[in-house]
Design brief:
19% of the residues lie in helices and 29% in strands. By secondary structure, it is α+β, with helices and mostly antiparallel strands. It has an 8-stranded antiparallel β-sheet with strand order 6-5-2-1-9-15-14-11, with no helix packed on it. The protein has an 8-stranded antiparallel β-sheet with strand order 3-4-7-8-16-13-12-10, covered by helices on one side. An 8-stranded parallel β-sheet has the order 27-24-23-22-19-18-17-28. β1 and β2 form a beta hairpin. The radius of gyration is 25 Å and the shape is globular. The mean pLDDT is 97.
Length: 542
């Protein structure tokens, strides 16, 4: 974590939980409240601080801009709201709670995490780890927890930074940073309310926050969802049947996938099985943006045999599609993808890749991230999925990286995902739409999602608050889950993963990864996962 190399004498505002300061960030610089212009008004439990000027250069210089900070300090909770203005445009605003005892951060999907002397930044929204909803706890030596949560009603990025003091690392500052939406650049930003409270019991705070989120995003209950087909409500086992690796190495062709389903059908009613197909379209990821059957895997006839055979057994089929990645060298990329390439708030294209071929580098430049808010990309992708669905009759479409969030100035990635799903449902109303990873603002868009992971260790969206996730959604194992025979992640770039079995909970559907000879090489371990699926069906399926 990077930090300033000097102490800035920000004006401190007293609250019952500790002193608070405010920073204002533009794309050009960072500013504080000018102490010589402050006006303070107190009305009962509410304190309003008005700054008619700002400082910069660490407080050495003064300049234009303003801020209104409103603090409601009532028993049990401190609420802070800020209206900031600067002619350069507001990028983000930080509210800082000072001089707290340093402790682990909590209320994460992955459990408690320590705070090193260099500090820790926790981000929202993150579909895989960190925060699925903007709430974080900081543990205190007396066993209580300082909880900070945003009462925002829309998906906007937040960062929670725990910054230990360099000269006294047992004491820290808790920074609450809210970004303005890059789609609405403005010289003024009304920061959504931050609530701070200290508690010995997280449960009531989580329940209150869940009620806020469910109302803010109008999240349906699982029982009320109209986008969940009846067969999904009978599903207790997801089987990940791995096709072709990026390198072209084949794990299972279409006939091999069907054979695996037949073998599993001898241990569990196939009507409980959803078969997930990563790498079904040929080289995994390499030709994202162009989806079709692959001749090496069995071609059109082999794919049709797989789907018809699965349906004869009673199982369901879900191929994998890329929601926001396309190969740059595909014909037409410059028209249906290039203008919609993802941008950071600065206007630059984010760069990122994984190590697809064990070259130990991350410079595979053939792939580009596309914002689904770009309509030509949405239509290009949706038309392929709908056509293939009508031609072959598979039951579900899995949208890879669907939980991707970026504060793109050209369009909301979350609104783009909603528009993509709407297009798919218009063309194929009976097609289940599933996706990778989850955060609160997409709970109503996609009903079935993959679990997250932190460095291949599974994280589950029903933690730390089961009601928030399980009330609306279900999950299954991430594609990086190892197979029970070899630990192989199949087509996924992790390579190997010691985690091959999931907990049995209502929001977590048991998942089995299959590569090559998994079913015959580790029958005892496979049987354990099948047993989990039978237990899941008995406990949670009507």
């Amino acid at each position: 974590m990077h930090d300033l190399s000097f102490r800035w004498p920000h004006p401190r505002i007293t609250t019952s939980l500790g002193p608070i300061t405010v920073r204002i960030h533009t794309g050009e610089n960072v500013y504080g409240l000018d102490p010589d212009t402050l006006r303070v008004d107190t009305d009962g439990a509410t304190t309003t601080v008005v700054a008619d000027g700002l400082t910069w250069a660490g407080g050495q210089e003064r300049g234009p801009g303003s801020a209104v900070v409103r603090i409601e300090d009532e028993p049990g909770a401190v609420r802070v709201s800020v209206r900031a203005t600067h002619r350069d445009g507001i990028r983000c605003v930080a509210v800082v709670l000072h001089d707290q005892p340093t402790g682990d951060v909590t209320a994460l999907r992955e459990g408690d995490l320590p705070v090193p002397a260099t500090g820790r930044v926790v981000q929202y929204p993150n579909g895989w780890f960190d925060l699925a909803t903007p709430l974080l706890g900081l543990r205190r030596p007396d066993g209580t927890v300082t909880v900070a949560r945003s009462l925002d009603g829309e998906v906007r990025s937040k960062r929670f930074a725990v910054v230990p003091h360099f000269d006294a690392p047992d004491t820290c500052d808790l920074e609450l940073i809210a970004d303005a939406a890059a789609t609405r650049p403005s010289a003024e930003f009304d920061v959504p309310v931050w609530e701070l409270r200290r508690t010995a019991d997280l449960a009531p705070v989580l329940a209150e926050h869940t009620a806020h989120v469910r109302a803010a995003y109008a999240l349906p209950t699982w029982e009320e969802r109209t986008d969940v087909p009846a067969w999904l409500r009978r599903t207790s086992l997801v089987v990940s049947l791995n096709g072709m690796h990026f390198t072209g190495r084949v794990f299972l062709d279409y006939d091999g996938m069907l054979d695996a389903l037949r073998q599993l059908g001898e241990q569990i009613d196939p009507a409980h099985i959803l078969a997930y197909l990563p790498g079904w379209e040929g080289r995994y990821y390499r030709w994202y943006g162009r989806f079709d059957v692959d001749e090496r895997l069995g071609g059109a006839e082999g794919f049709r045999r797989l789907i018809d055979g699965a349906h004869q057994l009673g199982a369901r089929i879900m191929p994998m599609f890329g929601a926001n990645v396309a190969a740059r060298d595909l014909p037409g990329f410059e028209t249906w993808a290039a203008p919609g390439q993802l941008l950071n708030p600065s206007g630059h294209t984010p760069i990122g890749s994984v190590d697809w071929d064990a070259s130990r580098h991350f410079d595979h430049s053939w792939g580009a991230l596309i914002n689904p808010s770009y309509e030509p990309w949405r239509r290009h992708l949706a038309e392929q999925i709908v056509r293939l669905h009508h031609e072959y009759g598979f039951d579900a479409a899995f949208l890879d990286i669907s939980a991707m969030y970026n504060n793109d100035p050209r369009g909301s990635t979350t609104a783009g995902l909603q528009a993509l799903v709407d297009l798919l449902r218009d063309g194929s109303p009976d097609l289940l739409i599933a996706g990778e990873a989850w955060f609160d603002g997409i709970g109503g868009i996609i009903p079935l999602v993959q679990a997250g992971h932190r460095d291949t260790v599974p994280t589950h969206h029903d933690q730390p608050d089961q009601a928030l996730f399980t009330g609306t959604n279900r999950s299954f194992g991430h594609i990086c889950l190892g197979d029970p025979a070899h630990g192989s992640t199949g087509v996924h770039e992790a390579g190997y993963n010691a985690h091959w079995r999931l907990p049995v909970r209502e929001g977590v559907i048991p998942t089995l990864t299959v590569v090559d000879d998994t079913l015959t090489a580790a029958p005892d371990r496979v049987a354990l996962i099948v047993q989990d699926a039978q237990e899941y069906a008995a406990k949670y399926l009507s």
